[in-house]
Automatic annotation (TrEMBL):
<dbReference type="GO" id="GO:0009103">
    <property type="term" value="P:lipopolysaccharide biosynthetic process"/>
</dbReference>
<keyword id="KW-0812">Transmembrane</keyword>
<dbReference type="InterPro" id="IPR050256">
    <property type="entry name" value="Glycosyltransferase_2"/>
</dbReference>
<feature type="domain" description="Glycosyltransferase 2-like">
    <location>
        <begin position="5"/>
        <end position="166"/>
    </location>
</feature>
<dbReference type="InterPro" id="IPR029044">
    <property type="entry name" value="Nucleotide-diphossugar_trans"/>
</dbReference>
<keyword id="KW-0448">Lipopolysaccharide biosynthesis</keyword>
<dbReference type="Pfam" id="PF00535">
    <property type="entry name" value="Glycos_transf_2"/>
</dbReference>
<protein>
    <submittedName>
        <fullName>Dolichol-phosphate mannosyltransferase</fullName>
    </submittedName>
</protein>
<keyword id="KW-0472">Membrane</keyword>
<dbReference type="InterPro" id="IPR001173">
    <property type="entry name" value="Glyco_trans_2-like"/>
</dbReference>
<dbReference type="GO" id="GO:0005886">
    <property type="term" value="C:plasma membrane"/>
</dbReference>
<keyword id="KW-1003">Cell membrane</keyword>
<keyword id="KW-1133">Transmembrane helix</keyword>
<dbReference type="GO" id="GO:0099621">
    <property type="term" value="F:undecaprenyl-phosphate 4-deoxy-4-formamido-L-arabinose transferase activity"/>
</dbReference>
<keyword id="KW-0328">Glycosyltransferase</keyword>
<keyword id="KW-0808">Transferase</keyword>
Length: 240
C-alpha cells in the first residue's frame, strides 16, 4: 500500500497533464511509496486521452473520471475517497504548483506534533496577474478577519493532510478553499509552509475574480456559521 496519494483534479488541462505527472515522478520516486490519483472533472478536450496514454507507462498513475462536471472540491473529495494512502498531497492540475515542494511538506509533517493534520502551501511569490493577486489578497484579508484561521493563503492548491481527518470534515462545494478553518474547527492544528509558485504555461484559468467573489461571500458566511455552531468535548470509554 502507498504511504502517500497525490490527488490532482483537472478540467480541460490536456497540455499540462504529461509535464506535471513527470514532475511528480521525479520529485517522489525513490523517496516514498506513492500513487498519483488524477480526477478528470468531465473534461471536453483531450485530457482523458492523455491520462490513458500515461497510464500505460506509469504504474503509479490511477485515473478517476466524473461523468458530469462537478467542480474542484468534489473532484478533490472523490480523489481522496479513492486514495489508498493515509496521507494526501494535492496539486492543482494547471502546473502552477511545484511537485518539488512535496518532499518539504513531508519533512515538515515528520517534525510536527501529531495533532497537526494539515500543511498548507503558502505562495509567497505568487506568479499571477496583478488583478488576481489583488483580489486574492483582499479575499484572504476578509477571510482571516472573519474566520481567524491564522492562514495567509488558503487558495494555494498544494497541501498535505491526513486522509481520515479530511473525510470527517463537512462537505460542500468550494470547501477546498477553507480547509485550514475546517480542520481547526475539528480540533486539529494547521501549519502554513512557503512554497514555489509558477506562471501557467498552457490552458486557461477556470475561475474569474467576480465568480470567486460572489461564491466566496456566501461560503464565508456558511463556514463562519459552522464554526460558531461547533461543539467539541473529550470522550472516554466507560468499562465495567
Amino acid at each position: 500500500m502507498p504511504q502517500l496519494s497525490v490527488v490532482v483534479p483537472v478540467h480541460n488541462e490536456e497540455d499540462n497533464v504529461a509535464p506535471l505527472v513527470d514532475e511528480i515522478l521525479r520529485a517522489l520516486r525513490g523517496r516514498i511509496d506513492f500513487e498519483i490519483v488524477y480526477v478528470d472533472d468531465a473534461s471536453r478536450d483531450g485530457t482523458l486521452a492523455r491520462l490513458r496514454q500515461l497510464q500505460a507507462v506509469t504504474p503509479e498513475l490511477r485515473v478517476i473520471r466524473h461523468l458530469t462536471n462537478a467542480g474542484q472540491s468534489t473532484a478533490v473529495r472523490n480523489g481522496v475517497k479513492a486514495a489508498r494512502a493515509p496521507w494526501i498531497a494535492t496539486l492543482d492540475g494547471d502546473g502552477q504548483n511545484d511537485p518539488a515542494d512535496i518532499p518539504n511538506l513531508l519533512a515538515q509533517r515528520d517534525r510536527a506534533p501529531a495533532d497537526v493534520k494539515l500543511f498548507a502551501g503558502w505562495r509567497v511569490n505568487r506568479q499571477d496577474s496583478g488583478s488576481k493577486r489583488w483580489a486574492s489578497k483582499f479575499a484572504n484579508a476578509i477571510r482571516s478577519r472573519l474566520l481567524r484561521d491564522a492562514t495567509p493563503d488558503t487558495g494555494c492548491g498544494i497541501k498535505l493532510f491526513e486522509r481520515e481527518a479530511f473525510l470527517e470534515l463537512p462537505y460542500f462545494d468550494h470547501m477546498h478553499r477553507y480547509l485550514p478553518a475546517l480542520m481547526q474547527r475539528a480540533g486539529w492544528q494547521t501549519v502554513s509552509v512557503p512554497v514555489n509558485h509558477r506562471p501557467r504555461s498552457a490552458g486557461v484559468s477556470k475561475y474569474t475574480n467576480l465568480g470567486r467573489a460572489l461564491v466566496g461571500i456566501r461560503d464565508l458566511l456558511g463556514v463562519s456559521w459552522l464554526i460558531a455552531r461547533s461543539r467539541r468535548t473529550a470522550i472516554e470509554e466507560v468499562r465495567p
